[in-house]
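Here comes my example:
=====
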Amino acid sequence: MEPPAASQRSARPQSVLFMCGQNVVRSVMASALARHLFGKSIYVGSAGVIAGDPDPFVTAVMDEIGLDVKKHRPQSVEDLEEYEGLNFDLAISLSPDAHHRALELTRTNALKVEYWPTPDPTGEGGNREQRLEAYRNVRDELERRIRARFRQP
């Protein structure tokens, strides 16, 4: 018999919130990928510790795989709480600051938290192609993790 923690972790949530520092790179990619892969079978949201400014490299690498994120407007966790509420089963934090914030949310919300440490490609130097490659690597890793985590048992 499986221990309760393992069976709870493997259960597919009905709603998931992807969180990162500014809701402009990692959480945007993750939420777009999850929506694309699982449609309306999982409600997906995204937020940042703070709201940043849209990143054109994210738009470029998501366009490469046919996903349009141009309409995304960065929002903070507070913005999300104020306008939509935090009715999520699971928060997936993608950065240390987002993980800290997600754990704080568990004090007042019935929310499970998973931490998926994900590199921040914004610090990548080099030419445009080298920078895009860093974003592609993050995108592709997030897709692998999302497929593995949310596939039907």
Remarks:
- The beta strands are 15-20, 43-48, 90-93, 112-115.
- Residues 1-9 have pLDDT under 50 and may be disordered.
- The domain at 13-150 is CATH 3.40.50.2300 (Rossmann fold).
